[in-house]
Specification:
13 strands, alpha/beta, 378 residues, seven-stranded mixed sheet, 11 helices, Aspartate Aminotransferase, domain 2, four-stranded antiparallel sheet, Aspartate Aminotransferase, domain 1
């Protein structure tokens, strides 16, 4: 099936809605809704009679994630509730020492800031670096020293859409024995992602943004060589090695990443996300990424033609992601945002401006209509 036919059959947004908010929460493809309906009907009519089949879906999802981020093994993948939980697993699992420091950007979403700030109770300094420069990676590296234990960054910044060179940062961290933690919620599902190439120690991302999945489920990658370096803080029946033997009194944490999953899996979320990821596998991430970058470039060019628009997102092509944030000078951008939403242009109010985030399936008519409505507000 052609990409055009896939888009037509999978995304059925109401025709009066211009959806440009995938950096927040994405609409579901039809196949995802159908997977949830089938799972719900199965629960109604047969309960958990087919639980072994559900476990096969769970195993398939881990394989899909392994392929999506190029993890070495499905054993490196844990399924958690959200990005914040995964970040907390890391932040509260490191054996910090008084005087250690963590280097990050000054643009992070609160989930990738609060967990690190909370380590101040252990004497850990959280260094926030201004990355609005020609060389943001150099700025981050320059703040590292012999007491730096962690570099924790978002692959793409939620507000500006700045895309970092993760390979450069990862190589530096690996060469200097520094943990490298990547919040990839604004990348996975939008761009090709290779956790091995970037030398990541930890990667996490929710399903509900660019992966077009549900809220309440997230991937967590932990490099096998350092898995046991994370102190466990959550315990339960599911995180032990022999989790199917309920009568066993002695236990040890699972050798694989299941050690980070303390309780029963989110089977509803697993079925939904597996369906969503099958769409990306069918299309191929190179084509998904190409379409998103084309939409981003088109949007930037069109915004540049409007008077009074100040684009806050990076203009350089290698720094672009799926996010374009802008301000209308000498105008109340809160009012402009409210007017856009009133006219069913679904977007976000970020950094005191407007954030548009088109996906691969977003057509140019949607962008043009949104800009037409915007122009009437300015």
């Amino acid at each position: 099936m052609s990409l055009e036919n896939i888009i037509r059959s999978e995304f059925l947004l109401d025709p009066d809605i211009q959806y440009l908010n995938h950096a927040a929460v994405s609409p579901w493809p039809v196949r995802t809704a159908n997977a949830v309906k089938r799972f719900a009907d199965e629960n109604v009519h047969t309960g958990a009679s087919n639980y072994l089949d559900w476990l096969e879906t769970e195993a398939r999802l881990r394989s899909q994630i392994k392929k999506l981020i190029n993890a070495p093994s499905i054993n490196d993948i844990a399924l958690l509730k959200n990005t914040s939980e995964a970040l907390s697993v890391v932040a509260c699992g490191i054996d910090w020492c008084d005087g250690d420091n963590i280097v990050s950007t000054d643009q992070e979403f609160p989930s990738n800031r609060i967990v690190w700030e909370a380590q101040a109770r252990q004497g850990v300094e959280f260094r926030q670096v201004d990355v609005m420069s020609d060389e943001p990676e150099a700025a981050l590296i320059s703040r590292c020293d012999e007491r730096t234990r962690m570099v924790a960054v978002s692959s793409v910044q939620y507000g500006t859409g700045l895309k970092l060179d993760l390979t450069k940062l990862g190589l530096f961290c690996r060469d200097n024995d520094i943990y490298f933690c990547v919040d990839a919620i604004q990348s996975i599902g939008a761009h090709q992602f290779d956790c091995q190439a970037i030398k990541a120690d930890f990667v996490m991302a929710d399903a509900h943004k660019w992966m077009c999945g549900p809220e309440g489920i997230a991937l967590f990658y932990c490099r096998a060589e350092i898995r046991e370096q994370l102190r466990l803080n959550q315990f339960g029946w599911h995180m032990v090695e022999d989790y199917s033997d309920y009568t066993r009194k002695d236990w040890v944490p699972a050798k694989n990443a299941r050690r980070f999953e303390c309780g029963s899996p989110n089977m509803l979320g697993i079925h939904a996300l597996s369906a969503s990821l099958s769409l990306f596998d069918e299309i191929g991430m190179p084509d998904v990424e190409k379409s998103i970058i084309n939409n981003t470039s088109y949007l930037i060019d069109k915004l540049d033609e409007l008077d009074g628009v100040n684009i806050l997102s990076p203009i350089l092509e290698q720094r672009r992601a799926g996010i374009v944030t802008f301000k209308i000078e000498a105008k109340d951008n809160t009012d402009i945002y409210a007017n856009l939403m009133k006219n069913k242009v679904v977007c976000a109010n970020r950094l005191g401006g407007i954030r548009f985030s088109p996906h691969f399936y977003t057509d140019l008519k949607t962008i043009d209509k949104s800009l037409e409505i915007l122009s009437l507000s300015i």
